Amino acid sequence: MNIAVLALQGAFIEHEQMLQRLGVETFEIRQLRDWQHPKDGLILPGGESTVQMRLLSQLGLLEPIRQAIIGGLPVFGTCAGMILLSADHLGTMDFRVRRNAYGRQLGSFHTIHHVEGIGDEVPMTFIRAPYIEEVLSGDCQVMAEVDGHIVAARQGRQMATAFHPELDEDTRLHQYFIDIVKKTAV
Amino acid sequence: MTNNRQDLNRQLAQMLKGGVIMDVTTPEQARIAEEAGACAVMALERIPADIRAAGGVSRMSDPKMIRGIQEAVSIPVMAKCRIGHIAEAQILQAIEIDYIDESEVLSPADNIYHIDKTKFDVPFVCGAKNLGEALRRIAEGATMIRTKGEPGTGDVVQAVSHMRLMQSEIRRLVSMSEDELFEAAKQLQAPYELVRFVHENGKLPVVNFAAGGVATPADAALMMQLGAEGVFVGSGIFKSGNPAKRAAAIVQAVTNYQDAKLLAELSEDLGEAMVGINEQEIELLMAERGK
User: N or C end of chain B, less CB within 10 A?
Assistant: First the structure.
């Protein structure tokens, strides 16, 4: 199994380290030619979504990535990655997000919460985070709600979290994604 | 709770990695920077080149001006306070700034003490010329480090020497035996626990950016190749002929800093770079402020 990690800007190394700890090989996507490598899944990391969107389109990566996800490539987006997957950006997941939903850095926080399909006491680190404002179709399943706001969702082989599992020690969400990738490969 | 905030503040810096933080003086410039792909902006009344030219005492910017920039963009907004100026930092925290730069670019308010940054909820970035300075700032609560460079000169030489020195000091610590670390801490004038962290992990416990004198995509790529995790660009953008184009080119250069062919394309037709002053021509070495 080889998982591509979008490495244009942000906390992509943290995802690579997490996946490597789980025994999965990773490689970085920095430009179009990296995208030609065979891959079983894709991670869209945290960072600044405006920067990542701009670089995706300048480097000609936006449409190939969109087509691959529509074609069934498993994808996991965290924070900025969740914004990229939302209706107003790549548009492959059926939800709308509110950016910087918790305000500025003083609004960043850490909590522990239940996640559907994962279990209890999942650590959640929110850094200038978004949340899902509106789910647009029944295909998109809510995985977690914190204080009445949706912060994790799954739609087929796509999953997204408003928080950063790559910053905490708990590997369950990455393992969950790896399991989706394994089922896809079969 | 203090520790929790420190973690969250270090983690915000992690999200900025691989990005470019740009100095802006107006909401209009902030929008240009965001549009060009800045991962954050530094709001200040005068960019370092003009601070250098104007001389005199340089202070925190007008909060109203900073607010204007906060309203103009959705990316994080940083602002500078003077070294040791606790009250300026409190004011910046009150307007919910995303990151405070306790900066040698402004006139120092205290010749001995830096701010005790552990007392604040908002994060701080501080400059450092070497590993000892970096670890002292981290001990005081800085959650992000940058080289000091020599701001406002367009001359990258100082940023290069700071980054090279820091990296070689890190490699030296890594190669030491455990019983040598106590003496190393003494020589670095830094806490033993932080020295030990660097020995075990081969890196600072916080994100480390390059700053000072970066003016071209090639400068940015150079700093990334030397081990910077991202780049601050101050005067280099809005003192140049075509700020929007240069800013976008520097952003791309930071992502693909190892692809010389792409860097060649990015370096084409950027218009005039900032004029710059050589290291030997300047009278005031800002990097010598605050050790």
Answer: N
Closest by Cβ to A106, choosing from B74, B96, B254? B96
Residue A128: which of B12, B252, B262 has the nearest Cβ? B12
Residues of A in contact with B251 (CB under 8 A): 51, 54-55
pLDDT in tens, chain B (291 residues): 345 899 999 999 999 999 999 999 999 999 999 999 999 999 998 888 888 888 888 999 999 999 999 999 999 999 999 999 999 999 999 999 999 999 999 999 999 999 999 999 999 999 999 999 999 999 999 999 999 978 788 889 999 999 999 999 999 999 999 999 999 999 999 999 999 999 999 999 999 999 999 999 999 999 999 999 999 998 889 888 899 999 999 999 999 999 999 999 999 999 887 777 776 777 777 888 888
Minimum distance, in Å, between the CA of residue B176 and any CA atom of chain A: 25
If you measure CA to CA, which chain B residue comes closest to A54?
B37
Supply φ then ψ for residue B134, to 5 degrees.
-60, -45
The residues of A annotated with a catalytic role in the active site are 79, 164, 166
Of A163, A129, A157, A158, the C-alpha closest to A144 is A163
Residue ranges covered by each domain of chain A: 2-185
Cβ within 8 Å, pair A125-B96: no
* Contact between A92 and A85 (Cβ < 8 Å): yes
Instruction: Residue A21: count other Cβ atoms within 10 Å of its Cβ.
Output: 11
Question: Between chains, do A48 and B11 touch, taking CB under 8 Å as contact?
Answer: no
CATH class of A2-185: alpha beta
E strand or H helix that includes residue B170: helix B157-175
> Could you list the active site residues of B?
80
Measuring CA to CA, how many Å separate B199 from each of B142, B165, B185, B194? 19, 16, 11, 9
Q: With CB atoms and an 8 Å threshold, state whether B12 touches A30.
A: no
